[in-house]
Amino acid sequence: MSSVTASMVNELRQRTGAGLMECKKALVEASGNFDEATVILKKRGIASAEKKVGRDVSEGVIQAYIHPGARVGVLLELKCETDFVAKNEEFLKLAKDICMHIAAMSPKYISPEEIPEEDVAKEREIAAEQCKEKPANAIEKIIEGKLAKWYGEQCLLRQPFVKNQEQTVESYIAEWISKIGENIKVARFVRYQI
Questions:
Q1: Helix segments in the chain, DSSP class H
Q2: What does CATH list as the number for 6-52?
């Protein structure tokens, strides 16, 4: 096991935004390997974010974003647990990132639960029609796959994040939940376009 120095802990903290003690523990567990330590911190962060998801969000911000050229604009209500976090620069940066994503990707809903049932039924019917020639035992999986892809196009939380296509908006928010230490929720948004 390699020795973990304060500069190594500080560097990992700069990269991930995690606390000093979490960084030190992760580096010790990863024997000084930064990549492994980063993965350990992400896994812990997502686990801790999942615990916070059910907590009440009664504070937050209304963030406005006008895309250069003034032809697309977004209003976003992003909620958190405390007024302290709502005024935090990092939280405001998250709100702006989400606004920019909405401007670029034009989602219609926050999550699949918001989509009207008749729209889901119609999309399911279209998918069933498209795969009617496939083997009977595979049809339901194909339909579910097509629906999942459609949700990814329609729903903000399911879309690949515009600044990092490797993660969804939902996982991006989960990272911020673990970094800030509070539940964060997109309450609503409106996208305007000329």
A1: 6-16, 20-29, 34-52, 83-86, 89-105, 117-130, 136-154, 169-180
A2: 1.10.8.10
